Amino acid sequence: MFAFFSNAKIAVRIIVALSLPVLGMLVFSSMNIIQKYQMNKEMTKVVELTQIAPTISAVVYELQKERGMSAVFLSSSGQKFKSELSDQITATNKAIKAFKRSTLSFDAGSYRVVLADKFRLVMRDLDRLSGKRKNVETMNISVSSMAEFYTPVIQNFLSIIEELGSVSNNAEVSKSISAYTALLQAIERTGLERAMGSTGFSASEFKPNVYQKFIKLIAAENAFFDQFKVYASAAEKSFLAATLKGADVDAVEHMRKIALDSIETKNTGAIEAPVWFAAITGKIDLLKKVENLTAGNLLNTAAAIKEAAFTSFLLMVAISAVLFFGTITLVTLIVKGLTGPINSLSSDMSALAKGDLETIVHGINLSGEIGGMARAVQTFKENAIENNHLTAETERTRLAVEDEKQSRSDAAAKAQLRQQEADRI
Fold first, then answer.
1. d(CA 20, CA 279)
2. In degrees rounded to 5, what are phi and psi of residue 267?
3. Which residues are within 8 A (CB) of 356 and not within 5 positions of it... i.e. 6 or more apart?
4. Contact present, 251 and 313 (Cβ < 8 Å)
5. CA–CA separation, 116 and 134 (whole Å)
6. Residues of the chain falling short of pLDDT 70
7. How many CB atoms neighbour CB 17 within 10 A?
């Protein structure tokens, strides 16, 4: 490896030296880009599922009312809520139709397999709904059997919304989801309390099994409200406290106490089931306002995080591209800035070494080491030229001296010849 670097060209050395930090930058940038992309994808799923949650909630709300009215209808042997139940079925069908429309553009296949299974399950439940309604209409089903059908159906719908919890890993969104689903479960327990209370008040007594369910439902409802308060924002908790009060809430508390005391008093206070139903429905309607606020907050939070993640994703892509191509450009300029002058200087030195003193030395005006090398070569060239001049001058002087000697020798010879000729005469 050392031998390779020792013998490698400067351009190769520079590229190898810069490749590691460039590669590190690319890995780091890629990780951030992937993280932002995954966050955007995650929030997109949360937003899409939250957007159809109101249609699911609407079906749940209408099914809860239908279950409660069916309980009154059956408990009163068909004497109460006959026309109201018919109207309620129409309202439920309308909500179901809206839900089915919303699922046409919803891609459950992009989520966990279990979500698609849940959608298939509720569709199957809806297909069975007309048969159960017929049983209620003909009084061919007990209150408990009716509730045993409606309650799992409602829970299956709620489980679709609860699937939100498996979609997001974002702490803020997860808290909002937990608050939302806890509130939905609290409202469902209130709806079951409405059905059980209607059964007890219709019969003018709370039989032990109905009484036990009634107590458990109240406890479960309170537990889910406590869970909601743990995860809800301060604004949502304040809105719950400000909303959940008034005549209907007070009436429910009053009738609930009578029902709880009835195990000892053997008296339900002559409260009619429709009165109880109307009051607790009013309470549920108030809770529905809190639910709508909570769902809206969840949607807004997820949408804001989605938008921020998408913006960050685009920004990271742009920054990474600029850094990458900027680095490549800078490296290219550095390599050319070094290898260009060095290659030119190497060519100049080779020419000078061959004796071509007419060669122009490049880079003498550059600063830094390369400029210093170029000026040293220029000095070498100038010295070589000066040395050549001195050599030529010395040679001319030598030749002149030799010529002078030769001239003197020739003159002496001629003089001698003339003298010899004179002597002969």
1. 72
2. -145, 130
3. none
4. no
5. 29
6. 1-18, 425
7. 11
Question: What is the C-alpha separation between 170 and 172, in angstroms, rounded?
Answer: 6
| Strand ranges for 70-192 from DSSP E | none
Three-state secondary structure call for residue 271: coil
Contact 248, 282 (CB under 8 A): yes
Reported for 119-123, long-range contacts at CB under 8 A and 24+ positions apart, including other chains, are: 119/160, 121/156, 122/153, 122/156, 122/157, 122/160
Give the C-alpha separation, 26 to 18, whole Å.
12
Burial of 202 (0-12, 13-18, 19+ CB in 10 A): buried
pTM of this structure: 0.71
Taking every pair of C-alpha atoms in the chain, what is the biggest distance, in angstroms? 189
277 Cβ contact list (under 8 Å, min separation 6): 68, 69, 72, 81, 194, 197, 198
Residues 6 or more apart whose Cβ sits within 8 Å of residue 358: none
Residue owning tokens 């509130």: 183
Burial classification of residue 244, based on how many CB atoms lie within 10 Å of its CB (0-12 exposed, 13-18 middle, 19 or more buried): middle
Structure tokens that stand for 75 in this block: 């408990």
Instruction: Note the Cα 348 to chain centre separation in Å.
Output: 59
CA 314 to chain CA centroid, nearest Å: 12
Please answer whether residues 53 and 158 qualify as being in contact, where contact means their C-beta atoms are separated by less than 8 angstroms: no
Name the residue with tokens 């839900």: 99
Three-class secondary structure of residue 114 per DSSP: helix
Give the sign of the dihedral formed by CA 19, CA 20, CA 25, CA 31.
positive
φ, ψ (nearest 5 deg) of residue 121: -65, -45
How is residue 422 written in tokens? 């004179």
The pLDDT tens digits of the residues spanning 1-57 come to 555 555 666 666 666 666 777 777 777 777 877 877 777 787 888 888 888 888 999
